[in-house]
Amino acid sequence: MSQSAPQETREIRLKRLRMRAWHRGIKEMDLILGGWADAHLASADDATLDQFEAVLEEADQDLYQWVSGQKPAPDHIAEFLEQISREFRATLNRST
Question: Which of 23, 39, 44, 64 has its CA 20 to 30 A from that of 14?
Answer without folding.
Answer: 64
